[in-house]
Amino acid sequence: MRRIPLKMIIGRLVAVPVSLFAVASLAFWMMRLSGTSAASSVAGEYATPEAIAATERELGLDRGLWDQYTGFLGGLLHGDLGRSYFTRQPVAGELAARLPLDATIGVLALIVAVLAGVGLGALSAYHRNRWPDRTSRGAVTLLQSVPEFVFALVLIYVLFFRLRWLPAPVGQISLSRTAPPSVTGVVLLDAPLAGNWPAFWSASAQLVLPVLSFGLVLAAVFAKVTRSSFGSVLASPQIEYARSLGLPPWRIFTAALTVSRTAILTTVAIISGALIGGNAIMQKIFSLDGTAAFGVDSILKMDLPVVQGIVLAFGGTAVLLFLLIDILILLLDPRVRARS
Amino acid sequence: MPLKDIRRRGTAAAAAALLAAPLAACAGGGSSSAGGSGAYVFALAQDFQGVDRAKYASEASKIVGDVMHSRLLELDTETGRAAGTCAPGVPPKIAADSPLVESWTTADGGKAIEVTLRGGVKSAAGNVLTSDDVKWSIDRLKAIDASAKTLWFTVGGFDPDDTISVESPTTFTLHLKSPSELAAYTLAGNAALILDSKDAKAHATPDDPWATKYLTDHTADFGPWKLTAFSPQQLTFDQNPNYAGERGNVKRVVLRSVPEASSRIQLVQTGQAAETSGLDYTQLESLKKSGAVKLVECGNPGRDWLGLNTEDPVLGKPEVRQAISMALDRSAIATAVYRGFATPAQGGLSKAYGEFGDGAGYRHDVAGAKKLLGQAGVGGGFSFTLSVSSAQPGAHAQNLAVLVQQQLKAVGIDVKIKNVPSAVQYKADGLAGKMQAFLMAESPAVGNPGYSAWLSLGKNGLQNYGKFDEPRLDALAADLQAGAGGETKAKTAELAGLIAERQPAVYLVDRSTVNVRNTCVTDLPSTGFGNDFTRAKASCQ
After folding, report:
1. Could you give the CA distance from residue A28 to residue A72 in angstroms, rounded to a whole number?
2. What letter would DSSP give residue B38?
3. Phi, psi angle pair for B216, to nearest 5°
4. How far apart are the CA of A266 and the nearest CA of chain B, in angstroms?
5. What is the pLDDT of residue B103?
6. Which domains does chain A have, with CATH numbers?
7. Residue of B14, B262, B431 lying closest to A40 (CB–CB)
8. Considering only CB atoms, which chain A residues are within 8 Å of B427?
9. Which of these, A11, A225, A268, A302, is most buried using a 10 Å CB contact count?
10. B399, B433 in Cβ contact below 8 A?
């Protein structure tokens, strides 16, 4: 039976709130470094100095920094992240409405990345220095050398503008469809819940380009890691022994892939960290209203409560995700378990 | 719905989501364009926080206001205008009536505007427009709309303490503190949105007496459109069935946020969007050659300028500012940066207001500039920091800054460019007088030389980031906003001369508004100050 290192897991769990406190404090003070007040913009284009001062009072920006900080931490303890200066809505609600979209795109992109990347990497390692390897390495080099937003724009130009195979990058649903009532904030999920299948197909088509763009760029990383670790395993004495026993190639292939899983899982963890909040530019390009794009807008608008909330949400998710992956690796890989 | 069903449906939704993407790709886009249903799709860069102008102000809110169009007065978009073009004249005239107003007239020596409402005008909720709606709308803006307050009481000249007297359900008088040329234009602008007070009050609460929550994502007014779907990415307006004003053939107006400029271009080129905005001049130049898109230029007094902080010990000297102005080759700027969509500035005021002076301070004269710098005691050269943001004057700001830097190098001025990515920070720094030099757009909401000058150079001007303080300029600007009593031409000339001499703002180019539309839009009544989507005629795919 597998021994679960409970002590280590509890230790990590205890560290989570400490990490979150540090992340929250960092977010608060970093955003105040510029000393810029959003009041002049919140008050409106034609606001007078008096109106701007009134807005500053309304937003609580006239209070001392320490007072604002303790108020922020006090709110956090009650689950209150404050209100956006610009949308005037509670930050928690704004994030809850957007995070599912980030998660959906992230998961779908990760699936594409793992399938394509691991496939390419394994193929490359298995046929090392032969034409499948050379072709695969060429594709990986190309994907790695092109910035992801350029890759996305090229895909849009070719697949939408030139060939008209895919719809325009105008968000989660095409211009001609009405979005179903929001439950999760993801039209792809809300549409079947509402029984609105035309909207579902439209939303599916809308997500093909962003998922492909993001997934294929990430696939390059998985391909490299898989080729490297899979190649080492294939050259190991264990696999040589298996070959000498006359095991069929597919058994050898799957055995080698199983041994490589730790490296692949570690890559999943690292990539997931990058996925959280890392797709802001892609969301902008595809007009998707995810948390990452919202975060970028909020930074530029100096919408402090939203930025603090997003940093906390992303930081917290990353901490929990890394913990989960660590536990998964511990459970799957006896070598790591023995070392820990 | 039972919980079990929801779970089952949720699982089905997730499973379907995973399977759908590749199938959808094979099926292609599969969507008919919005134009097929008589929709006018406008793709713009900004998203939407809400449609209540009192609470949500952004670039997008100007277009939203143009769509909502529940205004007392209307700009005359017809006189002298051919189909598919823009109404000429700055400022455009104000029409004698409007869908909301039967007639209006100035009274009491210009200190009052008497208005008679049109009978039977109804909101989408079915409530009839009365003077009480106008009064409630004014009370509301006084209470919570900082921008509208400025436009009504600082710019428009209305009396904040005694703004309106209601005589009957269809007649009322608006009072001014002193006569103002701009009062009627305020009533024809987005700051004068007349709300359906009965509908709004029905959604007010003790905590929210002005119904701001409801009006964030609902419309309650007497305009031609009713907001039927709201999301931060898209506003969908369908027809107000009770609207009796003139209409084109557009059944629906969709405002869609598409942040990426290249995607907006592709949308308008393919006809999936009827119109777009927020493109830089290089993109406009390439679109000009595209047969699928037409560019409709509307004259207005917009200008781009180089601001110099007058509190700076070097830049505060008029000779230095004049030298900088003469060192700039505006023709090269107009060609290289504006690609022919702007003309070199030739005077202290926009050419839209007429030609004033000989333009001497605006001619490219490197030797003259060096001489002036020598006279100012900085003949050996000096340096300053130029702050740049894509928010001001636009997407072309960086290119403009680099060209200014290159041209000023020829007279020994070392310009250091500082990029300010946040528009909020740019504005806050500007208002605080923190920027040494900056690039700005002057886009007056009303075509009046006094207002244009006050906006950027008046002591209390909203864009006076250079902290220029000249009582004579303030007096001239105020007189021109008031009407100047028959001396308009003389005072405009004096104002232009004063700006040309002191160069508080180094004007670079005069530019017009460029509307980017697919050829499927056959007509859209426009002026340089806004569009009337209600009377648009379009036959998009």
Report:
1. 8
2. T
3. -65, -45
4. 24
5. 97
6. 98-288 (1.10.3720.10)
7. B431
8. 40-41
9. A302
10. no
The answer to whether A174 touches B27, Cβ cutoff 8 Å, is no
B258 Cβ partners below 8 Å, 6+ apart?
A169, A170, A171, A287, B43, B44, B45, B264, B267, B273, B276
Residues 50-89 of B with CB under 8 A from A: 50, 55-57
Residue in the structure block whose two tokens are 């598919």: B84
Distance CA B523, CA B538 (A): 7
ipTM: 0.79
Q: Packing angle between helix B488-502 and helix B318-327, nearest 10 degrees?
A: 90
Judged against a pLDDT cut of 80, whether residue B6 lies above it is answered with: no
Q: Mean of the pLDDT values across residues A241-263?
A: 85
What pTM did the predictor assign?
0.85
To the nearest whole angstrom, how far is the Cα of B285 from the nearest Cα of chain A?
19
Asked if B407 and B328 touch (Cβ cutoff 8 Å), the reply is yes
Give the amino acid at A328.
Answer: L
Q: How far is B126 from chain A (nearest CA, A)?
A: 25
Rg of chain A (C-alpha set): 24
- Of chain B residues 311-370, which have a CB less than 8 A from chain A? none
What's the length of chain A?
Answer: 340
Contacts of A167 in chain B (CB under 8 A): 28-31
Sheet holding B112-117, edge to edge: B101-107, B112-117, B171-175, B164-168
Whether A326 and A12 have beta carbons less than 8 Å apart is answered as yes
Looking at the complex, does the CB of residue A207 fall below 8 Å from at least one CB of chain B? yes
Amino acid at B452: S
Residues in chain B within 8 Å Cβ distance of A41: 57, 423-424, 427-428
pLDDT tens track for B326-370: 999 999 999 999 999 999 999 999 999 988 888 889 999 999 999
Average pLDDT over chain A reads 88
Contact residues, chain B, for A51 at CB < 8 Å: 146, 149-150
Selecting from B148, B212, B424 the residue whose C-beta is nearest the C-beta of A302 gives B424
**B9 and A40: CB-CB below 8 Å?**
no
